[in-house]
C-alpha cells in the first residue's frame, strides 16, 4: 500500500495530554534549510517525508463524506509510488473520525498535532468541526489548509492566518444561484431548508444579500438540526408556502430526505436547487433518478460521470490510478474526484512553498497565482492574495438529466459579478 497508506482509526475516550512545547522540529532532519527559512517550524516534515492529518465524519450523519479521503489517499499513493512524492518527500496521510461532532474534532486535532506530530492538518471536514478547531491550530501555528467547508470565515478572518478553505465559499455559491434565478426566474418565490449552523446560515445569508434589489423573494424558510431524525415536518411547512423555487441547503443525509419528500408531494412542484455539498450522485440515487430530473446545482470540478470528460487526460489518469491504488473504491463517486482535486491542489501549493516549513506552507496557500489544477473545470484556477483568502470563487450551473449532471451556461466568476466577499 506504500508510505502514504491511511491509518483509519476510531475516536476513543482517552484523555489527551496537553503539549508542553510548540514543536519547531529538527531542522537537521529536513536537510539544510535556506537562510530565510531558519528558525521556522519543521515538525512533521523531513527531506524524505511529509506527515499530514485529516479529520472526516467516517461515521455519523455526514458519513457520506468518508469517500473524500479515499480519493486523497489514491492521489498520494500514486505520487509516492510514481513521482517520488512531493519534491522527493513521501506523503503519509493520517485520517481521524470525528463523527461530525465538534468536540470530537477538537480531540482528534490535538491527537494529530501533539501525538502524531503532523506537519499540517490537510482538511477538516465541516463548518462546525473546523470552527471548533481553528483557534487551537492557530494558537499552535499549525497549517490547517484547504479545509473541506465553504464557510466564508476561512477567507475573511484575519486572526486565523493558519487556516484557509479550498472549495467555493458558501456566499459565492449562493451568489451563483441568485444570478441564475435573476436571469431565468426573475420573479421567483423561494422556500428554503437550511442546516441550523454556520454552514446553513452562511449560504442562506449570502443568497439573501445576492437577491437584494431584485424581484426574487424568500417567502419561507425552515431550519433543521444535525441530530434530527427527519426533516419531513419542515418539508410539509415549506410545501404550504406554494413557492415556485425550493433552495435545499443541506448535508447529504438531509439532502436525500428533502429530495425524497419533494418527489412524494405531487401538489408542490418547485424548481429544486440543491447545494453542491449534497449534490453527489450517491445522494440522488437512493431517491430514484426518475424523481430528481431537472434538479439544479452548481459545481467547480469535473464529474467522473460526465461523458464529456471521457477522453480528458486528468480524468483518464484519475481512473487509472484509482483502479490501481484504491481498487475497492468506485471512481464514479464524485467525492473521490473531489479528494483527488484537493490533494492535487496541496501538491501544487507545497511545490510552490519557498520554505519546506509550516510557515512556508501557510504563506504559499495565500499566494496562489492562477494555479491550474487539472481536475477543476476549464477556466477555474486557484487564486489567492493578501486581500483574497478564497482559492476558488467560480462555479458553473448543472442540471440533473437521466442518470447524471449536465453542465449548462458559462462559468460564473463571482468576484467579477459581485465583487469580493465582504468581511
TrEMBL record:
Instruction: Enumerate the InterPro entries for this protein.
Output: Leu-bd, Peripla_BP_I
User: The Leucine-binding protein domain covers which part of the protein?
Assistant: 49-401
Organism domain of life: Bacteria
Q: Which residues form the signal peptide?
A: 1-23
Q: Which UniProt keywords apply?
A: Signal
CDD domains membership: PBP1_ABC_ligand_binding-like
Belongs to which family?
Answer: Belongs to the leucine-binding protein family.
Q: What protein name applies here?
A: Branched-chain amino acid transport system substrate-binding protein
Organism name: Thermomonospora cellulosilytica
Q: What is the lineage of its organism?
A: Bacteria, Bacillati, Actinomycetota, Actinomycetes, Streptosporangiales
